[in-house]
């Protein structure tokens, strides 16, 4: 039999209902957090997919774009190494 059916006083019933309400609110908060993280992942996947499509189109289009693409790739690699160096220096 349910806890609320065995309760002797109205105060005990309120306490049981309050406990159940808190449990359900925690469960709902957990589900909302999970849904938000799934939504963030989906939007990030869409952003990456669009970037890959633009990158592929630019790589296929012509010689001038290939030079630009190579320059951008080299620039990103250099920026990565500079940032990693600066972050490692900041930690020590």
Automatic annotation (TrEMBL):
<keyword id="KW-1133">Transmembrane helix</keyword>
<keyword id="KW-0812">Transmembrane</keyword>
<feature type="transmembrane region" description="Helical">
    <location>
        <begin position="68"/>
        <end position="87"/>
    </location>
</feature>
<keyword id="KW-0472">Membrane</keyword>
<keyword id="KW-0813">Transport</keyword>
<dbReference type="GO" id="GO:0015031">
    <property type="term" value="P:protein transport"/>
</dbReference>
<dbReference type="GO" id="GO:0000139">
    <property type="term" value="C:Golgi membrane"/>
</dbReference>
<protein>
    <submittedName>
        <fullName>Bet1 golgi vesicular membrane trafficking protein like</fullName>
    </submittedName>
</protein>
